[in-house]
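Our platform keeps sequence and structure together, in a single record for each protein. This encoding replaces a full spatial description with a residue-level series of whole-number codes. We quote a single record here, exactly as it is kept in our systems:
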Amino acid sequence: MDLPVMPPVAPMLAKSVAEIPPGMQYEAKWDGFRTIVFRDGAEVELGSRTGKPLTRYFPELVEALQRELPPRCVLDGEVVIARDGRLRFEELLERIHPAASRVRMLAERTPASFVAFDLLALRDRSLLDEPLSARRAALEEALAGAADPVFTAPASTDRDLAQSWFAEYEGAGLDGVVAKPLDQPYRPGERTMFKIKHERTADCVVAGYREHKSGPVVGSLLLGINDAEGRLQHVGVCAAFSMARRRELAEELAPLRMDDATGHPWGGWADEAAHADARLPGAVSRWTGGKDLSWVPLRPERVVEVAYDHMEGTRFRHTVQFRRWRPDRTPASCTYAQLEEPVSYDLARVLGG
């Protein structure tokens, strides 16, 4: 491979802001694997956000990119899996598997797509120093003839339209809106764009915590929500605390500590079979590897209000933010019924512009 922009390339990143800023280019925030695609003739490489290759996990996409892209180019975009009109991040995670046979099976069952939103190089020319407005025009021209499963991300300079996207696109599984300065060159690894994400609140049961790597203070709170049968399901973690707050939380929660998990709703967490019909903390996966998944069980008596962006199935998609304790709420009242469900929006309408 011999391109004017060579792998690895760290993608340009975005910082969180509360409102959609004016005077920029706006795009949907895709919920997939951020990927830099390098194509030089028959050679295609998919580079992850960390620089590690993703190529082997998406063989069907490599074939499509060979067919649909210009012969020599470098693109920034997102690898996604869509089903029933929505993005499916959990199915994307299943692809990161060591067995080639399973990857091939999943490639046939749940094929991936690539949504391009920036062009970093074309033929023998690097576009990194070109302003976004020029890169966007070149992207649209370069992919004018591309077909499913390769798409160009919809973009607009209309802030009102971006606001409507923010309200409507979530129903298709998208994550918010990204705003990009039009005169900005491409700066790998720098947070020079802006992201605006959805935020909601939920009341959750604090049923345990993991200790911080530095010692016996709280690293992350383990959160639960009751399903329709009254079973406490592990839905995610709350982890962004200062070191002083971690120590305070350990003291606050000390009266609820259990000597072991006997009688705890998640008491069977160490039994692999128990994870088959319940969502428990500590599930071993290819992502956790040899990581220590042990946790401190707490009597599930305290309720916390957390802020979250959106759900992925029955769990929080990202780490949530601590808002306040809720002594006025009982653990039994923390059910899935409280969670807001976005209005459904067909993903095909998004990709159709």
The chain has two domains: 13-197, 200-338. Residues 134 and 182 are 9 Å apart (CA to CA).
